[in-house]
Design a protein that fits this description.
Elements: H1 4-42
């Protein structure tokens, strides 16, 4: 049985998962920065 399709799928899942994690982190970071700026602006 040829292992290459499984290897390609494993790499694809890894890249998609990593991309999703990076995206989620960026969204959370921007939200936290906006909240910190709002707190700073209230003073």
């Amino acid at each position: 049985m040829n292992p290459w399709p499984f290897i390609i799928v494993a790499y694809a899942l890894t890249f998609v998962g990593t991309g999703g994690l990076v995206w989620q982190s960026l969204v959370a970071m921007r939200r936290a920065e906006a909240e910190a700026e709002a707190l700073r602006g209230d003073k």
